[in-house]
Amino acid sequence: MIRTIKKQQMHELVSEEIIRYIADKELVEGDKLPSVDELVRMFGVGRSSLREALRYLEAIEIVKVINGKGIYVSDSGSYRYSVKVKIEDEKSFLLDILDVRRALEGKAVELAAKRISDGKIEEMKACLAEYDERKQKGLDTSVIDYEFHQHIYDAAANPLLRSVYDSIAELIKKFFSGPFGVKELFDNTYPFHRTLFDGIESHDWKYALEEFNKMMDIIEETIKEY
To answer: Is 57 within 8 Å of 19 (Cβ atoms)?
Structure first.
């Protein structure tokens, strides 16, 4: 299979530069990296891109950020043979995120089925209609797919749950931005968006949650088999 060339975001490029810096300097676990200000100047990037890169590297245990003290190398063995994070690392990373997503979004699905308003039902119908249209035309559906799941959190009407989700939203976006460089990787979850919505619309939270978990199972199996 010919793989799609991955379009990298700025924080991903910054992550690779930090990994390259660690390797070039032969830093080991416990060694301190330059400060945020110094890294911003070194790489010529914005603070937001750098912080996103650090969050990602911390999530996969390459660095550890200690508030008030600095940035330290967390694992000296994960980058020795490549400046890029290996496919196996990305698989493990995605599966870890999926565990968290199951818990957070699963609860959001349950609450949405119990609390969804008529107005939000119409918004989700319109979202699905656009999803269907883009799918039928063979267009990219990643953005509308992501939007569909945002509607679920909105419908759950729990500000604290949404706040927790927002704190890790950049990590969860990995599922919608072409993991492994393949945007169409999870296309086989498409039918479950409709059945999941049917459960939410009919206020049947058990059915909605069942369909959501089927979707998550497919994603998990696809990641493991890739």
So the answer is: yes
What are the sequence ranges of the domains in the chain?
10-73, 87-225
Task: From 131, 137, 133, 150, select the one nearest 189 (Cα to Cα).
Answer: 131
Q: What is the pLDDT of residues 97-140, one digit of tens each?
A: 999 999 999 999 999 999 999 999 999 999 999 999 999 998 98
Q: In terms of pTM, does the model score above 0.90?
A: no
Q: How far is it, in rounded angstroms, from Cα 146 to Cα 125? A: 15
What distances in angstroms separate CA 142 from CA 135, 179, 182, 184, one per listed residue? 10, 11, 11, 8
Sort 213 into a burial class: Cβ within 10 Å, 0-12 / 13-18 / 19+. Answer: middle
CATH topology for 10-73 is Arc Repressor Mutant, subunit A (1.10.10)
Helix (H) / strand (E) containing 218? helix 205-225
Name the one residue in this structure whose structure tokens are 């937001």: 48
d(CA 184, CA 142): 8
| Mean of per-residue pLDDT scores for the chain | 87
**Tens-digit pLDDT profile for residues 19-64:** 888 888 888 888 999 999 999 999 999 999 999 999 988 887 889 9
Instruction: For domain 87-225, give the fold.
Output: Four Helix Bundle (Hemerythrin (Met), subunit A) (1.20.120)
d(CA 136, CA 114): 31
Q: Which residue has the tokens 């393949």?
A: 182
